[in-house]
Amino acid sequence: QLQLVESGGGLVQPGGSLRLSCAASGFTLDYYSLGWFRQAPGKEREGVSCVSSKGGSTNYLDSVKGRFTISRDNAKNTVYLQMNSLKPEDTAVYYCAVMNYCRGPVVSWGQGAQVTVSA
Questions:
Q1: Beta strands of the chain (E only): which ranges?
Q2: Is 63 helix (H, G, I), strand (E, B) or coil?
Q3: Of 3, 19, 20, 65, which has the highest C-beta tally within 10 A?
Q4: What is the pLDDT of residue 45?
C-alpha cells in the first residue's frame, strides 16, 4: 500500500529551524519528482519546493528562497525540507507530494505536518 509519512513538524520561535521528513512505503520514489506544499488557515495550498527524480534540479517559492532547502535520499526513500530563519508567515500545514515531474499533477500526498512559528 502506497503511503507517505511525514515527521518533524512542531512549534518554533521566529528565526528558528525545523526539518521535515517524508518517508515512503509501498513504492520506490526513485523515478518521481518530490515536492512540499503548504496550506495556511484560510488560504489555498501552495507549492513550496520541488526536487527532480535524480535530485539535479530544485525549485522554490520566492518567499522561501535562501531559507528552505529540499533534498532527497533515494536509498532511504525519503525527502526532506530543511527550514531555516522561519517566520510567522511560514505557519501552515506542510504536505509532501509525489509527482511524475515538478509542477505536474500530484500522484500521492502525505498526511500533513503542522509547522507553527510563534514567539
A1: 3-7, 10-12, 18-25, 33-39, 46-51, 58-60, 68-73, 78-83, 92-99, 106-109, 113-117
A2: helix
A3: 20
A4: 97
Amino acid at 110: G
Indicate whether 114 pLDDT > 80: yes
pLDDT value of residue 28: 87
| Ramachandran assignment for 10, one of left (phi > 0), alpha (psi -120 to 50 degrees), beta (any other) | left
pLDDT at 41: 92
C-alpha to C-alpha distances, 34 to 11, 30, 42, 60, 63, nearest whole angstrom: 24, 10, 25, 12, 19
On the CB side of 61, how many CA atoms lie within 13 Å of its CA?
16
Contact 75, 24 (CB under 8 A): no
How does pLDDT run across 21-73, given as a tens digit for each residue? Answer: 999 988 888 899 999 999 999 999 999 999 998 878 999 999 999 999 999 99
At 91, list the grid cell.
Answer: 505557519
